[in-house]
Structures are given as C-alpha cells and as structure tokens.
Amino acid sequence: MRTLVDIPERELELLTRLSAEQRVSRAELVRRAVSAYLEPHQLPASRSVFGLWRDREDDALAYQERIRSEWDR
User: Fold this and answer.
1) Whole-structure pTM over 0.70, yes or no?
2) Predicted local distance difference test score (pLDDT) of residue 45
3) How many domains in the chain?
C-alpha cells in the first residue's frame, strides 16, 4: 500500500545517502524502519487470544471432551 509521509529534509538527505551506500531504495529503508519499530510493539500470540473462551458456556476442558467424543462414533 502506498502512503504519503513528510520527512524532514535532513533525514531525507541521510536516507538518500544510506540508500546509495546499501544499494536499496529509500522506500525499502523506510519499510525496514517501520518494521523494526513495530516489531517490539506487537502483542505476543498468547495475549492475542486472551479471553477467547469468556463468552462460552462450557469450559475449555468440557468442550475438548465433547469434540473428542465425536471421534469415537
């Protein structure tokens, strides 16, 4: 996806220089920087499923036993 971002002139100059040194586009450097910034801010997988069963009437063990009982049919 494309987006428009204002980068101060000084940072743009440094980005251009780094781009030439590493032989990658400025866009690629920006993508890498965004990824590096976002990585520590992501929720761990264990937290992304927290509360998954809160709206269920049976607990996880009861659900598991019910589903597995279908295997014996």
Assistant:
1) no
2) 67
3) 1
Are 60 and 53 within 8 A, CB to CB? Answer: yes
Query: Within a domain: residue 2?
Result: no
Task: Go through 11-45 and write b for each residue having 16 or more CB atoms within 10 A of its CB, e for each that does not.
Answer: eeeebeeebeeeeeeeeebeeeeeeeeeeeeeeee
Contact (Cβ atoms closer than 8 angstroms) between residue 54 and residue 44: no
Encoded amino acid at 61, one letter: L
With 0-12 / 13-18 / 19 or more C-beta atoms within 10 angstroms meaning exposed / middle / buried, residue 69 is exposed
**Any domain includes 1:** no
Quick: pLDDT tens for 1-54: 889 999 999 999 999 999 999 999 999 999 999 999 998 888 776 666 777 777
| Domain coverage including residue 66 | 9-72
